[in-house]
Design goal:
The complex is a heterodimer of chains A (165) and B (290). Chain A has 165 residues and is of the alpha+beta class. Chain A folds into two domains: 76 residues, Roll (Ubiquitin-like (UB roll)), CATH 3.10.20.30; 72 residues, [2Fe-2S]-binding domain (DNA polymerase, domain 1). Chain A has seven helices and five strands. Chain A has a five-stranded mixed sheet. In chain A, strand 3 and strand 4 form a beta hairpin. In chain A, helix 3 crosses helix 6. Chain A is globular. In chain B, 33% of the residues lie in helices and 24% in strands. Chain B has a five-stranded antiparallel sheet with strand order 4-5-10-6-7. The longest helix of chain B is centred in the C-terminal third of the chain and has 24 residues. In chain B, a hairpin with a 3-residue loop joins strand 4 and strand 5. Chain B starts with 6 loop residues before the first strand and ends with a helix. In chain B, helix 9 packs antiparallel against helix 10. Chain B has eleven helices and 14 strands. The chains are: A alpha+beta (165), B alpha+beta (290). At the A-B interface, strand 4 and helix 4 of A face helix 2 and helix 6 of B.
């Protein structure tokens, strides 16, 4: 039996009728065409599918879409809603060369987003711990850690300064 | 041909959940965070006909710390919330340490402490500390509610003492006695994220400099998280020293029954049970003194 659910994804509201065994990852990618969210291992180890649900990072591959009915979801597409102006985390990833093949990047950025929302001034150790659920098989971790550190500094500055940069 | 989908139920009360579990067929699974259930489904280990989700039950995610009741962790309380709970960090640091060391950030934002227990993995991170602290489980079922010592809960890998249609609704840890301390330490190949190769829960009570009571449990080294009574006996009524902790570690290592698997060899596990038991005792002792 299909279940009717209401999702708020990146500020847009969607009404869907879905099979309850389908994951949030499947619904985002297949029904909503939000393919920025990746599917890696499918078992919660790699973090490529990470999205934010009601302010917390989760593995969308292990989340049933029916369970997030009525919740607010942020995907990588929502980090740069205009499609032009990037989020400070994304800008820092580019500047620091924290992207190689790019497959882990959306998950990395959303884990960084969650980390910085909980701890705006993380130490290097805390950044590494915050990213421990995200694997990069190009092994570009140092650049990623640097990028998050830089974006944390910038996000903590006054908004006016950020604009004038 | 097994079907790939399942029916999904999200009851809003415990009694409704119990009725559903009684009425639905045998192949019905209870789901809290889903982080274990959905992996097992994906790996073709289970093909559920129905899933009964607990998240909609109000108040089941409660965490409370009180002077009389002790610590109560509701069935849907998230690992992340247990790890970050100030009251738990203060009074039950072994419990918050175990939750904090379970899996990764995302899984802790989805998975639950009680779910970790109910999956009955021999390496369940949250089991040894809760066992050492004498936790009990509150269970609801068609025959009414009952309380079970966590020590009597695990029967084998993936096997528990739950009867059909029963649900664990909370884990309760009694208030820690005066001059007591507990610790959780673990070891895994990558240090984070992956399953523990050895994990230890230790609890000791001091009377002066002597150990008055001790409870020691080893995870991932037997079909269930196991107690190591000879190691406990080694420290009982003795003045606590580092040497004594080392002796207890050696005893625990003789008692443990590890196997060789992808996470560690039998020999390495045996050596590490000794080391980690000693470390857990030292930390528990430090906490008992402070």
């Amino acid at each position: 039996m299909k279940h009717d659910i209401q999702l708020m994804v990146n500020g847009d509201s969607y009404s869907l009728a879905i099979d309850p065994s389908r994951t949030l990852n499947q619904v985002l990618r297949e029904d909503l065409n939000l393919t920025g969210t990746k599917l890696g291992c499918g078992s919660g180890d790699c973090g490529a599918c990470t999205v934010i649900v009601d302010g917390r990072s989760v593995s969308s591959c292990l989340t049933l879409a029916v369970e997030v009915d009525g919740k607010e979801i942020l995907t990588v597409e929502g980090l740069a809603p205009s499609g032009e102006k990037l989020h400070p985390i994304q800008e820092a990833f580019i500047e620091k060369g924290a992207i190689q093949c790019g497959f882990c990047t959306p998950g990395m950025e959303l884990s960084a987003y969650h980390l910085l929302s909980q701890n705006p001034t993380p130490s290097e150790q805390e950044i590494r711990e915050g990213l421990s659920g995200n694997l990069c098989r190009c092994t570009g971790y140092n650049k990623i850690v640097e990028a998050i550190s830089v974006s944390a500094d910038r996000m903590n500055r006054k908004p006016s300064k950020r604009k004038s940069r | 041909m097994k079907r790939s989908g399942f029916d999904y139920y999200a009851p809003e009360s415990i009694s409704e959940a119990v009725v559903l579990l009684s009425d639905l067929g045998e192949n019905t699974f209870v789901m809290a965070g889903g982080t274990d259930l959905l992996i097992r489904k994906r790996h073709g280990m289970i093909f559920p006909d129905a899933v009964v989700a607990l998240k909609k039950i109000k108040g089941l995610d409660r965490i409370s710390v009180g002077p009389k009741k002790g610590l109560v962790i509701g069935a849907t309380a998230l690992l992340a919330d247990v790890a970050a709970h100030k009251g738990i960090q203060n009074k039950y640091p072994a419990i918050s340490d175990a939750a904090k060391n379970t899996a990764n950030v995302q899984i802790r934002n989805m998975g639950t402490v009680v779910g970790n227990l109910c999956n009955a993995s021999p390496s369940a991170d949250n089991a040894p500390a809760l066992l050492a602290l004498g936790a009990t489980l509150s269970i609801a079922g068609p025959q009414g509610d009952r309380t079970l010592a966590l020590e009597d809960f695990f029967l084998g890998p993936g096997l528990t003492a739950l009867k059909p249609a029963e649900i664990v609704i909370a884990a309760t840890v009694p208030p820690p006695p005066a001059n007591s301390g507990a610790a959780y330490v673990h070891l895994s190949a990558r240090g984070k994220v992956d399953c523990s190769a050895v994990c230890i829960g230790a609890h000791i009570e001091l009377q002066g400099r002597k150990v008055n009571n001790a409870r020691l449990f080893v995870g991932a080294c037997a079909p269930i998280p196991m107690r190591t009574p000879r190691a406990e006996k080694t420290v009982m009524r003795k003045v606590f020293t580092e040497k004594l902790a080392e002796k207890a570690g050696a005893a625990a290592s003789e008692e443990a029954l590890p196997i060789t698997d992808v996470r560690a060899t039998q020999d390495y596990r045996n050596s590490m049970v000794a080391v980690m038991t000693k470390r857990a005792l030292l930390l528990a002792h430090k906490r008992a003194r402070s």
